[in-house]
């Protein structure tokens, strides 16, 4: 049976966790695939400087693994768990 999420490219999704400040400023929800929390981007207080563009740092665990809804990816626990299993 084909997994319902098999069309999600987890490798490609990874890039949305970097240099994402311009997008997160407009998002109302985002998720961290390190600690699997889903929260509002206004909770993000720290951004790393990646070549002049901010990369969000998770406010809960201090890791740059935050993906916003404007990525077009599903900000769900299931998706974050898949990302976590692939990248951590
Ligand atoms: Zn986190």
Rounded to an integer in angstroms, the radius of gyration calculated over CA atoms is 12 Å
- Could you give the order of strands across the largest sheet? 2-1-5
Q: Can you write the helix and strand succession as a string?
A: HHEEEEEH
DSSP summary, beta strand count: 5
The hetero molecules present are:
zinc ion
Which range does the strand content fall in? 15-25%
Query: Could you tell me how far the N terminus lies from the C terminus, measured between alpha carbons in angstroms?
Result: 26 Å
What would you call the shape?
Answer: globular
Can you give the helix content as a percent range?
A: 10-25%
Commentary on this structure:
- A hairpin with a 2-residue loop joins strand 3 and strand 4.
- Helix content is 22%, strand content 20%.
- The chain contains three helices and five strands; from the N terminus they run H-H-E-E-E-E-E-H.
- The protein has a domain at 10-70.
- It has helices spanning 10-13, 21-24, 77-87; strands at 30-32, 38-39, 46-50, 53-57, 66-68.
- A three-stranded antiparallel sheet has the order 2-1-5, with no helix packed on it.
- The structure holds zinc ion.
- Zinc ion binds next to loops.
- This is Cytoplasmic protein.
Task: Furnish the topology, listing elements before pairings.
Elements: H1 10-13, H2 21-24, E1 30-32, E2 38-39, E3 46-50, E4 53-57, E5 66-68, H3 77-87
Antiparallel strand pairs: 1-2, 1-5, 3-4
The structure holds zinc ion (ZN).
Residues 32, 34-35, 37, 58, 60-61, 63, 65 line the site of zinc ion.
């Amino acid at each position: 049976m084909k997994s319902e999420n098999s069309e999600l490219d987890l490798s490609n999704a990874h890039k949305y966790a970097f240099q994402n400040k311009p997008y997160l400023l407009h998002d109302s929800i985002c998720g961290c695939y390190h600690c699997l929390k889903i929260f509002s981007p206004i909770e993000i207080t720290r951004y790393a400087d990646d070549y002049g563009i901010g990369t969000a740092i998770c406010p809960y665990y201090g890791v740059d693994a935050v993906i916003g809804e404007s990525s077009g990816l599903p900000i769900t626990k299931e998706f974050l768990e898949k990302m976590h299993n692939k990248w951590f």
